[in-house]
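Form 12-C: Joint structure prediction
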Amino acid sequence: MYNLDIPGWMPECQLQVIEKLAAKIPPESVMVEVGSYCGRSAYCWAKSVDPSVTVYCIDIWDIHRYKPRPNVTLGDDTPMDRDHGRVSNLEQVHPSLENFKANTRDCHNIVALQGASPHDFRSWPDQSVSLVFLDGLHSNPWYQNDLYFWYSKVVPGGIICGDDYSSGHSDVVWTTQNFASLFGLTVLVHERFWLIHKPPAWDPFDALPNIAESNWFEPVAAGRARPSL
Ligand SMILES: C[S@@+](CC[C@H](N)C(=O)[O-])C[C@H]1O[C@@H](n2cnc3c(N)ncnc32)[C@H](O)[C@@H]1O
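Section 2 - Result
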């Protein structure tokens, strides 16, 4: 379920991808969205997951630091831009916590966390989140920091995904591809939406098949002292 009136940068076709992915998140678990803006994608996650899933929504919500504005429709008279939403006045496109809360007021499973990702969330426990959706900053070093940080927070078998896998956001494309090839993972892409499935039992040596298959490493017997290097 989604609300096309909420301003933002999420075309209807991607809201439909969110709906499908949200349905796969196990009941009673947790998901994180980084970059919630006015709540367009957050509303869709929150209304499409099982109601027992907690949706943590992270954003700086700082009108002085985040300047881009979506190309919204103003007022009721003109046909709506279905990719960016509709507002009755331009204050409703300010990236403020107030606007986010107003647009998601009937989403009881959302917890809004104001702060800069990943720095302000560095004590977040590892392997504790079923799905992370990255839609904060799309250029490096910020995007890369988010990708590496939040992947470590995903449970084995969980999903990390994001928006803007497109030529206009080359850092998203190259950083995601490099990350996946480094760790032996596969990037799935649908339109501008990308997704990486974390293997059920993630072992860093799985990512290094050539080394692991050579006899460079031998199992260390339990209790044996680690040789000094
Ligand atoms: C492209 S918009 C998100 C669009 C939103 N998902 C939607 O459905 O419309 C990017 C958002 O990332 C936020 N942002 C920028 N830097 C951030 C950071 N370091 N941590 C968290 N959010 C950040 C901005 O304030 C902005 O609201």
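Section 3 - Comments
Residues 170-182 form the longest helix (13 residues). Residues 8-10, 34-37, 40-41, 58-60, 66, 95, 116-117, 135-137 surround S-adenosylmethionine (CB under 6 Å).
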